């Protein structure tokens, strides 16, 4: 987890997950009692809990903790927020960066809260397209704004280590609302983050 605090686990949940993981190890033809695997079910269970901890967060509440009056309407951008998620189709990692831009309309949000919104949505079973739109919609719905734009760039292990096995591929997704439907504002955003549309 990225908050540097030691996570507190529900031991009943850990043990239930661990029992299933032990069965999976056996079904794969391995011996879960051998030295290197004895504690793997519990470790893997805790890793799954960590990597899906977003289900226990309320992103709207995160934003409401840090809203401030602001009367300027120039674009605010938080660039290259790193994230790690699990693809809901294969439960394999995908990871990359999210960049969020918004045009204030009377208020701004503490910058770290945008990173926390990304974390809250990434730490779930996800697809990149929904991750991008969810972040955009959460920011749009909870900050007074004239428009929100979110760009996500990610690498998917389900494409690198299985299936088509293409190592250099990345996926870029974008979602926007409000004034960012205007091409000229999109272009301004991409110029600011040094990307070409």
Overall description:
39% of the residues lie in helices and 27% in strands. The protein is of the alpha+beta class and 197 residues long. The chain has a five-stranded mixed beta sheet. A hairpin with a 5-residue loop joins strand 2 (76-87) and strand 3 (93-104). The mean pLDDT is 94.
Quick take:
The chain contains seven helices and seven strands; from the N terminus they run αααββββαβαβαβα.
Strand and helix map with partners:
Blueprint lengths: L10 H17 L12 H12 L7 H6 L2 E4 L5 E12 L5 E12 L1 E4 L1 H12 L2 E2 L1 H15 L2 E12 H4 L10 E8 L4 H10 L5
Parallel strand pairs: 2-5
Antiparallel strand pairs: 1-4, 2-3, 3-6, 6-7
Helix pairs in contact: 1-2, 4-5
Number of helices: 7
Helix and strand succession? HHHEEEEHEHEHEH
Stretches where pLDDT falls below 50 for ≥5 residues?
A: none
Number of beta-strand segments: 7
The proportion of residues forming helix, as a percent range, comes to: 25-40%
Alpha-carbon distance between the two ends: 33 Å
Radius of gyration: 20 Å
Strands ordered across the widest β-sheet: 5-2-3-6-7
Sheet with most strands: 5 strands, mixed
The coarse overall form would be: elongated
Query: What percent strand?
Result: 25-35%
Mean model confidence by pLDDT: 94
List keywords for this structure.
197 residues, five-stranded mixed sheet, two-stranded antiparallel sheet, 7 helices, 39% helix, 27% strand, elongated
